[in-house]
Amino acid sequence: MQTYLVDSNFFIQAHRALYPLDIATGFWNKIKMLADSGTIFSIDKVKNELFDKNDELENWCKINLPDNFFKDSSLKMQEYSQITEWAISKSDHYLPKALTEFLDADEADAFIVAYALSEKDNITIVTQEVSDLNRKNRIKIPEPCNEFGIKYINTIEMFRQIGETF
């Protein structure tokens, strides 16, 4: 079964810019349905990023997402080491700050990629990030995905792939 691993920006951009919780209830009801069915999930590092603002989005997540929605990323340390090695091998391209941020144990991006790497035939990452090979000050999720053959798409493309509307 194809599943979709959602990045923090899946929720944050939807809430702040595109689908406000109080207006776009169809979107949020669809997210709840997809989470309940196991079609979408995320990891504990994303949870930490979402649950640090004490805002409406955090409250919505606590009330609407199933208990098993956020998976334990520490189970994927072998894959995380592969992502770490890749990032370090790119130190001639990326600025030290970009590497430090990407590899920070509290940041979700490298762990998202590692989690998807563990089951890359069955997991597609959903992120709003776009590849930018010329950028040196930040490693974006698509860069290691391209290197490791991990599928990634944005939110709207996910809805198209699974044939859902809201």
Descriptive overview:
The chain is α/β, with parallel strands linked by helices and 166 residues long. The two termini are 22 Å apart.
Keywords:
single chain, 166 residues, alpha/beta, Rossmann fold, 5-stranded parallel β-sheet, 9 helices, 5 strands
Number of strands: 5
The SSE string, one letter per element, is EHHEHHEHHHEHEH
Strand line-up in the sheet with most strands = 3-2-1-4-5
Structural class based on helices, strands and sheet pairing: alpha/beta
Strand content: 5-15%
| Rounded radius of gyration (Å) | 16 Å
Number of helices: 9
Outline of the structure:
By secondary structure, this protein is an alpha/beta fold. It contains nine helices and five strands, in the order E-H-H-E-H-H-E-H-H-H-E-H-E-H.
Per-chain topology:
Elements (H helix, E strand, L loop, with lengths): L2 E4 L1 H11 L6 H13 L2 E4 H7 L5 H9 L5 E2 L5 H13 L6 H8 L5 H10 L4 E4 L15 H7 L2 E3 L1 H8 L4
